Amino acid sequence: MNMSSGNGQPVIRRLSEQVVNRIAAGEVIERPAAALKELVENAIDSGARRIHVRLDRGGIDRIDVTDDGCGMSPDDLLLAVERHCTSKLRDETLVRISTLGFRGEALPSIGAAARLTVMSRLHNSDSAWAIRVEGGVVGEVEPCAGPPGTRVLVEDMFFATPARRKFLKSPRVESSHAENVVRRLALSAPHIAFRLEFDQRVVLDLPVQDMAARVAAILEAGHADGLLPVEGQRGDLKLSGFICAPSVHRATANGQMLMVNGRPVVDPVLRTAVRVAYRNVMEHGRHAVVALSLDIPPEQVDVNVHPAKTELRYADSAAVRALVIGSLGRALGTGAGVAGVRPDLLQSRGPSSARIWYPSERSADAAGVSARLAAPLDAPGQPDAGLPPGFAESTLPLSALPAARKVVPDGPGQPAADDMTPAIDHPLGAAVAQVLGTYIVSQTADGALVLVDQHAAHERLTHEILRQQYLGGEIRAQRLLLPEVVDLPARQVEALLSFGAALARLGIEIEPFGGTAVLVRTMPALLGKEDPVGMLRDLAEELEADDLANPAQADALDARMDAIIARMACHGSVRAGRKLTHEEMNALLRDMERTPRSGTCSHGRPTWLKLEKADLERMFGRR
């Protein structure tokens, strides 16, 4: 109800300090995880070497954060719970902010919404001091027992604002948010040991580590030496970090740890750049797993956008996007064998839950893309007329190809034995066999088994060759002996014709042929005998369904052209069921190792899986 004067005019009045703090708390402390974030940031800023976090019921009942940082004096404690009091701003320009916290709102906001106790002791002091705030009411500073550093205890979250408390989720959900906060902050400070407990159960226990080890632990990514490193620079902007291969992905973006000047952020500019970088190598609807750190001059970024300090504004967001997309593109441009997926065959799991595998062997040379695959595999005297085109013989001479099996007599009168003497010193090893007419089985030098999906792998190789030819304007068109007429719905005909010029650059020349058909005159020579009808139907359906497909916009066109190339590659690749010789299988493996982005097919599915020797021994009960 509005207060008003006798003439009915509303009266402006000053709100009490308690009400002001509760209003501010609604912005700063939206859930227990938000309060925890502020407390851990304060602990990091204090110079702590170890931070211990304990939560009860996801922080709803209790948050307990202890650090061994610099500590506070009694006078500091009084100021710390007063709004807009901080030790972290050296000037009032809000430009060169080098600490995680700086607004001076966290502790007063928490104290306004919960029961807050802060206990602290300077390292050169003989005693500790404590102050208590309940629902915005500040108590006296009193002596207490405690080690050097600071301990902050938050109890009964939102007891003073019951409307907010009833909107909290279950303890399980709140715990999940809290764990995500600690993981992000722990990643930003590998020089600090972190321990996290939920209801007296240890969830995270990290020692002081280097960044690679901390990233591997936070992302739960296995061996740190297998993560793909990222380095990039554009003017004053520098990007570093580690990423997982595109075959490793998650249903949400929670696996994306992003930092700007050491500050964990949830920034739409960076997330969009990551999505674009992975767009053509990852399954649609899945999210990459990355840990990236951007260093940017303070005057080129504004961190004072939101009380949570996780959103930013950049002076040149286009430069930031270009740096991230370019740096990730280079890191992802490795051949197969660098990082892959190891399936867990001991229990039933969906394809998206495969464990991450990071080998320690040397990376394959990914400098160039193989220029093969132009000629069919059909050998003289062995016609294979009904099959799609495969790939030409390897650029390696046959004598240099790993021999799969060689018969060597064991001695006079002894039967010949199979002597496995392949040149297996390659990331994907040497081919042993083809099973189900679809999968190549190979063995590596360390005794591991590699499984390769021949269609998915060849699809990616064809995709990369077409892509390079398209970018270089070198796709050669092959005129059809008899032009093909493709009947389509009118809307799809319209969509295809609107992209006529772009398709011509891909070697596909079409023209209208009545209201519901197009005439196909040429096809890319690389695709050989591919039937144009099925491919044109698929392309037409995709273009019709894509709201963003606009040939007049360069960005949209580039994105759509890569998707068109992916569809063409799928139609022009070695099919499942195609029998391959050992030389052909090994040539495919070597091409995969040399070809960028060949760890996944054009649709983002993995092209290869690996079973270590230890995995096989566990499956058979040998360890």
UniProtKB/TrEMBL annotation:
SMART domains associated with the record: DNA_mis_repair, MutL_C
GO cellular component: mismatch repair complex
Molecular function per GO: ATP binding; ATP hydrolysis activity; ATP-dependent DNA damage sensor activity; mismatched DNA binding
Occurrences of domain DNA mismatch repair protein S5 (ranges): 215-333
Segments forming domain MutL C-terminal dimerisation: 431-580
Any GO BP: mismatch repair
Short name of one Pfam family: MutL_C
CDD domains: HATPase_MutL-MLH-PMS-like, MutL_Trans
The family this protein is said to belong to: Belongs to the DNA mismatch repair MutL/HexB family.
Role: This protein is involved in the repair of mismatches in DNA. It is required for dam-dependent methyl-directed DNA mismatch repair. May act as a 'molecular matchmaker', a protein that promotes the formation of a stable complex between two or more DNA-binding proteins in an ATP-dependent manner without itself being part of a final effector complex.
Name the record gives this protein: DNA mismatch repair protein MutL
Protein source organism: Komagataeibacter diospyri
